[in-house]
Amino acid sequence: MNNIARIQEALVRRDLDAILITDEKNQRYATGFAFTDGAVVVGREKAWLLTDSRYIEAAENIAGGCCTVQMFDRQHSQTDLIRAALTEAKAERLAAEDQQLSHARWAALEKALGREFLPAGDFMMALRASKNQEEIDSMIRAQRISEKALEEVLHIIKPGMTEKEVMAELVYHMLRNGSEGNSFDPIVVTGKNTSMPHGVPGDTVIQDGDFVTMDFGSLKNGYCSDMTRTVAVGHATEEMEKIYYTVLEAQLAGIAAARSGIPGKLIDQAARDVIEKAGYGAYFGHGFGHSLGLDIHEPPMAGPRGEALMEVNDLCSAEPGIYIPGKFGVRIEDVMIIRPEGAEVITKAPKMELIVLHN
C-alpha cells in the first residue's frame, strides 16, 4: 500500500515542489514501508526512499515499485542523498512536517541542506484523514483480531485475577490471532479503578460484583483498531446497570447523529445530551471520539471543540463514558466509518446487553 500519487496531487494543489517526510508513520503512508532514521522525498514527478543497511533489502522489496530506494552510508550521507533528490526534483518550494519535527531537528536540516522549509504540518494528516478501501480493510481485519481476543478472554476473567493478568491475556490472544502488536498500551481496570478513563493496569484484584473495563487494539498492516468493553463479574447492581445502559444510549445517539458534512462537536453533543439528561453530565469529561489510522489518535475529533467537518471515509471512535470517582465507571467504544447519510459501525463485539461473567 502506497500513496505517492495522492501526495503528488496534493503538492500541485498547494503549489509545492516537494515534501521531506521524516515521521515514521508518514513514511509508511507514503511508501508502504515503515522504518526508523530514514527519510522520504516526494517531488511532483518522482519519489525517493532513503534508508540504511538495516532496512535496504526490505525497503526495495516493499517500496521499490513506487519510488527510488537508496542506501546512505559513510560514503553517501543521508543529507547528500536528500540534497541530490531535491536537486533532481527542482524543488524550490520545499515543505516539511513542522508538527512532527523538533525545532532543533528542523533548524539542523535547513542548515545541512542549505534550504528553508515551508511548514506543512497538516499536509500529511489531511491526506491520512480520509481512508481508502485498502486502509479500511486493514482496520477491519485489526478489529476482528481484537474481537476474537476479547471473546477468548471473557472465558478466562474471574474473581482473583489482577488487572495485569487480564491485560497479559488480551495481548497474548491478540498476537496469537494475528496482530502485529498493540495499537496502544491496553487499559484494563476493575472496581473503583474503572472511574479512571485512562487507568493503568496494576495489581488490583477482581472481586465478585466488580466492573472490568478493557480498552485495547490490534495492528494490521500498521493500521490500528480500538475498542472498549465494560463487563460485570458475578453480578451487577441496579445502579451499575443504569449507568451501563445510559452510556449505551448515549453512544447510540452519537452514532445516529454522525454523517459527513457536520462538525464533530454535533456528534459529541448528541451523546452528551443523553448523559446530561440522565443526571450524569458532570461525570463525562472527555470527548465522544477521535479518528484513527496509522496512529491511534488522528484528526478529526468528535469532541466539544470539534469544529472540523466530518468527511466521507473518515473513521471515528464512538466512546462516551460515565466515571464516578471512588465508585466505578463505564465506557463502551466502537469505531465507525463516516458515510454521506450516516455512519457504518465496523465493531461487531456484543454490547446491547451488559455482559455478566460467571466463570
Brief rundown of the structure:
This protein is of the alpha+beta class. It contains 10 helices and 19 strands. The chain has a 6-stranded mixed beta sheet, sandwiched between helices.
Walkthrough of the structure:
The strands form 6 sheets. The protein has a 6-stranded mixed beta sheet with strand order 4-3-2-1-5-6, sandwiched between helices. A 4-stranded mixed beta sheet has the order 7-8-11-19, with helices on one face. It is built from 10 helices and 19 strands. Helix 7 packs across helix 8 and helix 9 runs antiparallel to helix 10. The chain has 2 domains: 125 residues, Creatine Amidinohydrolase, Chain A, domain 1, CATH 3.40.350; 225 residues, Creatine Amidinohydrolase. Strand 9 and strand 10 form a beta hairpin. The longest helix has 22 residues. It is α+β, with helices and mostly antiparallel strands and 359 residues long. The model has no long low-confidence stretch (mean pLDDT 95).
